[in-house]
Amino acid sequence: MDQDLKGWYTEQSPMWPGQAFSLQIEKILHEKKSKFQNIQVLESTHYGKMLVLDGAIQFTERDEASYQEMITFLPLNSHPHPKKVLVVGGGDGGVARECSRHPAVEEVVQCEIDAEVIEACKTFVPSMGCGFSNPKLTLYTGDGAQFLEKTNDKFDVIITDASDPVVNGDGGGVKDGPAISLFQEDYYARMKDKLTEGGILCCQGECMWLDAALISRLVKNCHEIFPVVEYAYTCTPSYPSGQIGFILCSKNEATNFRDPVTVWDCEKATALSLKYYNADIHRASFVMPTFMRNILKDAR
């Protein structure tokens, strides 16, 4: 992370070597070191408010819909009856906000490890933190992987909205971050045990341009656990390389993630106050460039 250039925030990390991303900043709204990570809320000139955790941009108001809507509605609209949803992570409130829009969802349970992130977003970014006022929501704070082990509940859909598994180290290298447990192979097996029959999960799946080896390993492991596994992606300008993916798995071998069972055209999506998601972009998100298609093919 480099903020030497006055008026600009530059995200520069050994997690994505040889590149950097800068946004012009008006002011720092909030900065605090929690038990788990360094939290910053910044006001940018063109991207609105933004959340930065351990030097990595988590969202900006300008483009957050491209991530929040896709990680939510790719799984929800692939399930015929997504009544009960578990959200692991998602401390900014975005996924909880989107779940509240879905008419079939009756109950949302969320477990976020860092209460300080929740409070920062509720206080300084109400466009995101409003998700925590969702009347369908029951919120817990704690480790998501441990929550899965202890809960006796079953869920139709599990959404894991995790930050990167590694973060900037004090010495300029990388170290395990608070989300590291959510990128382990056994985490997917634990999620399967907590899904209802025919249940679906969706996890933040990193960037194909930067993390192809990690994606390949996780997808290969998922194929050993679930009968249906897919990888999709969305375009988010403020994320490294402008792209981030999702790993989707289903216990139902008849699930076809590429063709949503709940179809929202652009008119319906607009009526639900969506900015990015619609049925056409749902289908398009599974169309891979050649190199990634080959990587996913080898991971089967």
Concise summary:
With 300 residues, the protein is α/β, with parallel strands linked by helices.
- How many domains make up the coordinates? 2
Provide the low-confidence segments as ranges. none
Task: Determine Rg (CA atoms, Å).
Answer: 18 Å
CATH homologous superfamily of the largest domain, by name?
Answer: Vaccinia Virus protein VP39
Which range does the strand content fall in?
A: 25-35%
CATH class of the largest domain: Alpha Beta
What's the total count of β strands? Answer: 14
CATH topology of the largest domain: Rossmann fold
What's the helix count? 10
* Topology order in helix (H) and strand (E) letters: EEEEEHEHEHHEHEEEHEHEEHHH
Give a quick account of the main beta sheet: strands, pairing sense, barrel closure: 7 strands, mixed
Q: What value does the average pLDDT take?
A: 92
- What is the terminal separation in angstroms? 37 Å
- Please give the order of strands in the largest beta sheet: 8-7-6-9-12-14-13
Percent helix among the residues? 25-40%
Architecture (CATH level 2) name of the largest domain: 3-Layer(aba) Sandwich
What class, by secondary structure content? alpha/beta
Characterize the overall form: globular
